[in-house]
Give the backbone structure.
Amino acid sequence: GQIVVPPAAAPPAGGAAGGAGAAAQPVVAPVPAISAVAGAHAASRGAAGEANALESQIGDLKKEIQAIANTKELEAKLQAKIAQDRRNDEADVAHELALQKTLAELKLLAKEKFDQINMDKEKEGGLTAEEAAQLDQQILALENSLKVLESKMMEIEHDITALHEHEKMSRNAVADGEAVLHAEAVEQAEEEAAHEATEADEASLNKQLEEEYADQTEITNIEAEINADKSFIATLDKHIKASSTLSAAEKAQLQAELKAEEADLARLETQLTEQQAKLKKDAEEGAELRQKYAGDLAREHYDEMEISMDVNEMHNILYPAPEAPAK
């Protein structure tokens, strides 16, 4: 948002201004100083300032739109990664179940071979030497087969352990991603609420600036009227005193007019005092609003930094830095 001050009373640089750029160094806008003499210059400066402010506001808006687009893109990628991590976890679980089944089958087969070896060894006592030699060959083959089975079982157990680690990594990645997305959603909601409050304060400050501008304009007009009245009174008084050709009736009429002008002058001076008091009160209220608005901008800047940290965290989850090679 942009605090808009009417061109004729545009304050110098340092006035209340919105936008993300102003958040880092909020400055309290001074009360606009109105001068009848410098009106044209103030108007031209105000128009140029308004154009620059509008250009800055458009630039800030473009940056904000781009930042939102970048954040949404990262959120979508992180959602996709979470879904992929879940699929990886499901695939790992299915693979582990298949390996567990294969391992159980191998253990059963190994038990059968081991039992066969024991049964064959029990037969050796009543066999001829040739039969015993053949049986020994069979037992040796069974033992070699059993060693192969045991080696395969060890490989499968190692694969299952590795799968457990991969499942753990996938689940941790899902948890990390969901936590970051949740934090981002909460902070975005908080930032939106804070931004609405900032806009409300900005509207109040705009209204207050307009009120101060109206006060100052009224004071300027009253001062101009007072100066005109004083000049007219001085001229009229001088004319009455200097003229020797006035009749008594004409002189009485001019003196009555002089008193009326003096009464009008007194009324204007009272009105000026009242208007100055009103401006002082409005300026005090404006100072409070400026301070509140500056706090809003500082808070919004802090919120933006928090969201930026979450965006970096999302980026790090999506694109982790490569691990350093082991020495």
In short: Helices lie at 39-123, 129-242, 248-318.
